[in-house]
Amino acid sequence: AQSVTQLDSQVPVFEEAPVELRCNYSSSVSVYLFWYVQYPNQGLQLLLKYLSGSTLVKGINGFEAEFNKSQTSFHLRKPSVHISDTAEYFCAVSDRPAGNTGKLIFGQGTTLQVKP
Amino acid sequence: DVKVTQSSRYLVKRTGEKVFLECVQDMDHENMFWYRQDPGLGLRLIYFSYDVKMKEKGDIPEGYSVSREKKERFSLILESASTNQTSMYLCASKRDGRSTGELFFGEGSRLTVL
Fold this sequence. Notes:
The complex is a heterodimer.
Chain A: E1 3-6, E2 10-14, E3 19-21, E4 23-26, E5 31-38, E6 44-50, E7 56-58, E8 64-68, E9 73-78, E10 87-95, E11 105-106, E12 110-115
Parallel strand pairs in A: 2-12
Antiparallel strand pairs in A: 1-4, 3-9, 5-6, 5-10, 7-8, 8-9, 10-11, 10-12
Chain B: E1 4-6, E2 10-13, E3 19-21, E4 23-25, E5 31-38, E6 42-51, E7 54-57, E8 65-70, E9 73-78, E10 87-94, E11 104-105, E12 109-113
Parallel strand pairs in B: 2-12
Antiparallel strand pairs in B: 1-4, 3-9, 5-6, 5-10, 6-7, 8-9, 10-11, 10-12
């Protein structure tokens, strides 16, 4: 069975500092990997996804993530955060191919708190 | 843009009441999902549907049922609400299971059971 572990429940960081949110997964098959963001009182929206090809994936709002197959990780990074990046971030995995369901398994979430 | 609309943002119900959470998507997506979101637990899949009248249990289906009579609408039903079902409920849709596209989420329905 697949699982996703986000290693930090909360990450406090000062504005303009770099940040890394960590995600590890386990799966017996090839996977697709995703990062979603949830701003306060909103639903989730996709930040970026890894399907195949280059292991460095760039997403919206200056975020990027690197797929590391040997370490089964998909860490999210941003070189300089802004106050508006304060949100909860979720890592997710699905089987590849997704069959007829396309369901995602989500991690526990990491709250990024950007301080002025 | 794809829009997923959840009918109620906030609900307060009493123990034992029947609760309906409605979700509508406007992009002809085949797959629809209900997740439950709790602090420290992330999102857990309750039920999903990959076609009209088709449904499958997710990881935590106990105490819930679903209905999908039309392609655009996916309802979550709590037959007899209990306090441990107090949570945020998120509906999502996807074009189909074979696509690598993203899930589109509604804004959530926060349910409090007293």
